[in-house]
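Fold this sequence, please.
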Amino acid sequence: MNGGSLGLRTGSYGLLQNINGAIAGGGISKSLSNVRKSSTKMLSVIREKERPLPNAWYRYIGCRKFSMLLLIAFALLVFALGSFVVNKDSTSPNVLQRIGTLGIVPYVNGGHHEASQILGEKDKKKHENRFQIPAFKGASVLPFRHPCVNFTFPPPPPPTRRRLGPRPCPVCYLPVDQAIASMPSSSSASPVLHNLTYVLNENPIKSEPHGGSDFGGYPSLKQRNDSFDIKESMAVHCGFIKGSKPGHGTGFDFDESDLAELQQFHDIIVASAIFGNYDVIQQPQNISEEAKKNIPFYMFVDEETEAFMKNRSILSSSKRMGLWRIVVIHNVPYSDARRNGKVPKLLLHRIFPNVRYSIWIDGKLQLVVDPYQVLERFLWRQNVNFAISRHYRRFDVFVEAEANKAAGKYDNSSIDEQVDFYKKEGLTPYSEAKLPITSDVPEGCVLIKEHIPITNLFTCLWFNEVDRFTSRDQLSFAIVRDKIMTKVDWSINMFLDCERRNFVIQSYHRDLLEQMPPPVPAVVRRPPALPNTRGKTPGKRIPRRGRDRRSGSSRHHKAAASNRDRNFF
């Protein structure tokens, strides 16, 4: 109810009073005429009061051409503001050339969300400072500001649109040429340890009840403890305990032609392995011509996997399969295929004594980012010499052990024995007290490493734990890392698992792939055929009765529906 209507009601009440007075005076027709004139006059006055002031804009807004001009001007303004924001946030046209190799996938990672509740402000500050350009020894000159300095993760989607399970997240990679230019020209300094040699023993004897193998040499507990006392020169057990050199009469043996090639110098190699015909070889993608020319890709297989590949005619005499150079292993040291896979995974520095950097990926993974970009992102940019992703959900060894038992990864008694042993050595559940260490449990399917004495020692001692206890290397990672870090100033880059999933795609093992049903072919829907009316003479339709009429009616409706469907298609 507005003010004008209130005034109208007031006027109407006054008019009624005038009418009553006119009736009492006997001048009804005259009074009614006066009333009609006064009411018309009052309504016009009220409408004039309610009408807003005239505005010249209304005449233009009603014009269609003027409205289109306004819309175009508004669109240009929005475009200009958007361009300004983009230019402000980026310092190079190639800043985000390789963000999200698998596509920009909404970042949903339960493990990161869970671990981020523990990291606190220390890890946040570390994340903020990670883009400072490190002073590499002999490194090429880099820009003052790294092109990825302003890169941040996109906000997670709302809970209603959140997908379950781990997913890749965007990663800012440098272009390949810039990544190559940022590679250090000389090796990093190894803290404390400068000279590392390896124990050889032609007749190893098991002297203690704990596990071990002839390949590993059965190091005693005293020898194990001494290996964590970091000195300038050290000799430790590191597999290949027999023979003159790794792969020659040591177990895990190579052909003579392969031995010669493995001794060659390379700046970078990529390596993987399949034992027991357990996986399907995945060809790398998005590899630059520079990497194809300068970085060899080695795939280690046992004789069982080799025989399968030959039967399927996928392995030629050249021992090449796509980018992979196939290296056949003879006299594998273990009956467990997964334990055999730990030899090249953790002891690449023994197989390739003249290599600077290596990227290890499990046989079920497909590399989809150039190796130069991976090394720049996770080693050179961080000024570290070893990188591994943390587990996407679990970051506590004790929780990981229970998960392994629940999933039947290994027999429960062996897992309990290993965890109890580490507990007596001082291993505690993960807490904020370990910051800036962000996790005790790695997702160990990818290792990015510079081959220097301290990292070689770390993987040697990690292998010795796998050889002594269970083959679940996630359980022994933290105890070896922590013991070394208490002695020397050294750290590991444990990056997010969603970042790992950005540069490798995970496939299923062969046994699961063979159990999966074949894909169902797509069903092609075709429009129904029109009813055949040929041979029928037009004429008067004979009416049907009863049941015949109903069936004929239903056929008529079906034909009409078919015609509608045909018109729709």
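Residues 1-54, 85-142, 547-569 have pLDDT under 50 and may be disordered. The CA atoms of residues 189 and 275 lie 35 Å apart.
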